[in-house]
């Protein structure tokens, strides 16, 4: 992937303008942060990015291909938005393995690798039902990064995690960035975002109110 352009994206739901002329540009090898108050539209922008929200006007262009015109979804994308629906009676590994089979080209080794990268044990025999909140969150991240997609979209990924886990997840995300992935992350915590991101978009009332380049 070479670039993503979000151009004049607007969306009304039940008469309310949720996205209002959103414009952004993103390139691989960088982490982009979305920051803003509850309800400002971060999740909606992420949904639009991965093809889950059809805009009323404007478009998302990924390497020249327009979402919903040329392609339905980005060609290589991993997503964590809200609670993923894993099956409670299966282990974390079994859940991801089933999903990897649906997606096609992800090997069992890559599934194990993703689980290890977030600090879980692929051989853990506990079913998802028995997972703690943090473990569930980690499995959601593992699901988003397995197979190392070009585009990784994470909505509040470190919310439920303890300090040590947050640190190791951040390290993994920065590794993925350095491998050339494009990562988009929404987070309330300003410090966490500043640590992780190369560029932070400030979202206000469904539109981009500012753009900060970190480290400059
Ligand atoms: N299904 C829906 N129908 C109508 N309005 C919705 C729907 N889903 C979200 N909204 C509205 O869209 C706006 C943007 O929501 P969004 O979830 O993108 O916010 P957010 O920035 O991700 O917030 P948070 O930080 O709380 O996750 C909010 O005003 C919300 O009330």
Automatic annotation (TrEMBL):
| One Pfam family hit | ABC_tran
Q: Which UniProt keywords apply?
A: ATP-binding, Nucleotide-binding, Transport
* Domain called ABC transporter: residue spans: 4-213
Q: Which lineage ranks, top first, belong to the organism behind this chain?
A: Bacteria, Bacillati, Bacillota, Clostridia, Lachnospirales
Question: Could you tell me what this protein is called?
Answer: ABC transporter ATP-binding protein
Gene3D superfamilies from the UniProt entry: P-loop containing nucleotide triphosphate hydrolases
GO molecular function annotations of the record: ATP binding
Query: What highest taxon heads this organism's lineage?
Result: Bacteria
What does the sequence similarity comment in the record state about its family?
A: Belongs to the ABC transporter superfamily.
């Amino acid at each position: 992937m070479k670039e993503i352009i979000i151009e004049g994206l607007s969306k009304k739901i039940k008469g309310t303008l949720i996205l209002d002329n959103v414009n952004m540009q993103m390139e691989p090898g960088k982490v982009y942060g979305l920051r803003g108050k509850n309800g400002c539209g971060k999740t909606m922008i992420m949904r639009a990015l991965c093809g889950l929200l059809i805009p009323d006007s404007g478009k998302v262009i990924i390497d020249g291909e327009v979402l919903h015109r040329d392609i339905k979804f980005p060609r290589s994308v991993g997503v964590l938005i809200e609670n993923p629906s894993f099956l409670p009676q299966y282990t974390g590994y079994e859940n991801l393995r089933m999903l990897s089979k649906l997606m096609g080209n992800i090997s069992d080794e890559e599934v194990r690798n993703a689980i290890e990268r977030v600090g879980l044990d692929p051989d853990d025999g506990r079913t998802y039902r028995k997972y703690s909140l943090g473990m569930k969150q980690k499995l959601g991240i593992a699901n988003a990064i397995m197979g190392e997609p070009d585009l990784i979209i994470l909505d509040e990924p470190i919310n439920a995690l303890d300090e040590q886990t947050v640190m190791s997840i951040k390290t993994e995300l920065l590794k993925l960035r350095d491998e050339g992935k494009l990562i988009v992350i929404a987070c309330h915590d300003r410090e966490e975002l500043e640590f992780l991101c190369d560029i932070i978009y400030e979202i206000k009332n469904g539109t981009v109110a500012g753009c900060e380049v970190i480290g400059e």
